[in-house]
Design brief:
Blueprint (H helix, E strand, L loop, with lengths): L1 E6 L4 H5 L10 E2 L2 E2 H11 L4 E6 L4 H13 L4 E5 L5 H8 L8 E5 L2 E2 L2 H13 L4 E6 L9 E4 L5 E5 L6 E11 L2 H12 L4 H10 L4 E6 L3 E2 L3 H11 L5
Parallel strand pairs: 1-4, 1-6, 4-5, 8-12
Antiparallel strand pairs: 2-3, 6-11, 7-13, 8-11, 9-10, 9-11
Helix pairs in contact: 4-6, 6-7
Length: 236
């Protein structure tokens, strides 16, 4: 199973708030966010890790080049600035089309043990995809997910509906069939990851929601402190 990281954003909000490091290199408890994800992926049996970064941050490129030299795990780094996460996904999709894969963004923070259970569940599943979800809402523009009683996903919404118990956690486990849907979205001019997810449902792909207790994103300087407290089990 392959793992992939979208890390092509500029991290402009962090830099405007005084964070000097590029987002992938921002540290949580002394570990760069991108290093944390790679470590967790390796621990969960990754056959390859694919990462896309933008071509504007030399520090991230140099960091990953050194990491690639020292790692036994195959690491593929794509350097390209893209207009959206969905376009970043498209750029790395050729590496993902021949195996099950897990995709997330570099600033997604979760508990490792929950992630391992999630990956194990997807590996054992015959469904087309499994999406990490949470009922903890700390997102500026949450994507609400409706499910049936068996947690099969029935829709993705910008606003809450009666069937929405969860929001998207931004961690996607998918089969190679999803790459065909992605290609179709690009050809039709569809943009944004949430619209790609809607298209997965429209195409009849069977997706299951997998609940996490909490998933955080690091978009602001204050989120760094919040994420560290969460990982250290020191939340208020």
């Amino acid at each position: 199973m392959k793992f992939a990281i979208i890390s092509a954003g500029e991290g402009s909000r962090l830099s405007q708030e005084g964070v000097q490091l590029p987002k992938p290199l921002v540290q949580l408890n002394g570990e760069a966010m991108i290093d944390r994800l790679i470590r967790i992926f390796a621990k969960n049996g990754a056959s390859q890790v694919v990462i896309i970064i933008n071509n504007e941050v030399q520090a991230t490129r140099e960091h990953l080049a050194k990491l690639k030299e020292s790692m036994a795990l195959p690491l593929e780094v794509v350097v390209k600035t893209t207009p959206s996460s969905m376009h970043s996904f498209y750029e790395i999709s050729p590496y993902l089309k021949d195996d099950k894969f897990c995709l997330t963004t570099v600033d997604t923070v979760f508990r490792e043990e929950e992630f391992t259970h999630f990956i194990d569940a997807f590996r054992a599943s015959e469904n087309d995809g499994m999406m990490a979800v949470t009922d903890y809402i700390d997102d500026e523009k949450p994507l609400y997910i409706s499910t049936d009683r068996k947690l099969n996903i029935t829709g993705f919404y910008d606003a809450m509906t009666p069937d929405c118990q969860y929001i998207s956690g931004g961690i996607y486990c998918l089969s190679p069939k999803a790459i065909n849907v992605l290609q179709s979205c690009i050809e039709k001019g569809i943009s944004r990851m949430r619209n790609f997810q809607r298209q997965l449902v429209a195409e009849g792909m069977k997706l299951t929601a997998y609940p996490f207790s909490k998933i955080l994103d690091v978009d602001h300087a204050s989120d760094i402190i919040k994420a560290e407290a969460f990982l250290n089990n020191q939340e208020d």
